[in-house]
Amino acid sequence: MKQLTTIGWREWASLPEWGVEVRAKADTGARSSAIDCSKIEELPGNRVRFTIRLSRKTNRDLTLEAPIAMRKHVRSSTGHGHDRLFVETILRIGGREKSILVSLTCRQRMIHRMLLGREALSGDFLVDSGVDHWATPRKKKRQ
């Protein structure tokens, strides 16, 4: 049986292929994962261009392009359905890496910029709802 990595309900998540580190909420009530994006634009060749805000306190953004992995109708927490584009990337938490699908959506009004749903967590992570790793400041990398 595979050993599960225990994570908190809020975690620092790394998306190394994109060079992004973001605070994420583990949400076992959500089926799929989502990341806060703007300027989502479909491109020829089944690709998408999107912009991730690196910090809400600054105007630093990162624009990326990726193949569209899936299109799916998703119901939000408010009960409204939306068609979303999903891309595939690597998620790194607690020393474990996993390829996940993540939907691109505007989460500007949400507290958590990234949501980790059951599909991303299943089989690899165990969520301890009593642990909150946002309270643990990240050490800045020396350059």
Structure in words:
Keywords: Hydrolase, Protease. One of its GO terms (molecular function) is peptidase activity. This is ATP-dependent zinc protease. With 143 residues, the chain is mainly β. The chain has a single domain (5-131), classed as Acid Proteases (Cathepsin D, subunit A, domain 1, Beta Barrel), CATH 2.40.70. It is 3% helix and 58% strand. It is built from 1 helix and 10 strands. Strands 1, 2, 3, 4, 5, 6, 7, 8, 9 and 10 form a 10-stranded mixed sheet that branches. A hairpin with a 7-residue loop joins strand 4 and strand 5 (61-67). The longest helix is centred in the C-terminal third of the chain and has 4 residues, at 118-121. The termini are far apart. The mean pLDDT is 87.
- What's the tally of helices? 1
Mean pLDDT: 87
The CATH architecture would be: Beta Barrel
The Cα radius of gyration reads 15 Å
Strand content: over 45%
**Poorly predicted spans:** none
Helix/strand class: mainly beta
Total beta-strand segments? 10
Order of helices and strands: EEEEEEEEEHE
N- and C-termini, Cα separation:
40 Å
State the CATH class: Mainly Beta
What is CATH's topology name? Cathepsin D, subunit A, domain 1
The backbone outline, from C-alpha atoms, is: globular
